[in-house]
Design a protein that fits this description.
globular; mainly alpha
């Protein structure tokens, strides 16, 4: 994974964010759909991400199921 602190801007395209995370854009979309756009709203076609959002996506990408953590159910 690329160091998230090396870039000075705070605005990333989906492909830039996926590249920083070392994942595919499809995996990025899956993470977004599971964790953000899970209430029936559609993911915008051209999403721009901020640094804090990329950090959160990195956490979600690394996290695995933990029986001690209750995940929020899908809304909708």
């Amino acid at each position: 994974m690329v160091n998230l602190n090396t870039r000075q801007t705070d605005d990333y395209t989906e492909s830039e964010a996926a590249g920083m995370l070392g994942i595919s854009v499809d995996r990025l979309h899956k993470l977004l759909d599971e964790n953000i756009f899970n209430d029936g709203t559609l993911r915008p076609p051209e999403l721009r991400l901020r640094h804090a959002e990329v950090v959160l996506l990195a956490f979600w990408d690394r996290s695995t199921g933990n029986p001690k953590v209750i995940r929020m159910p899908r809304r909708g």
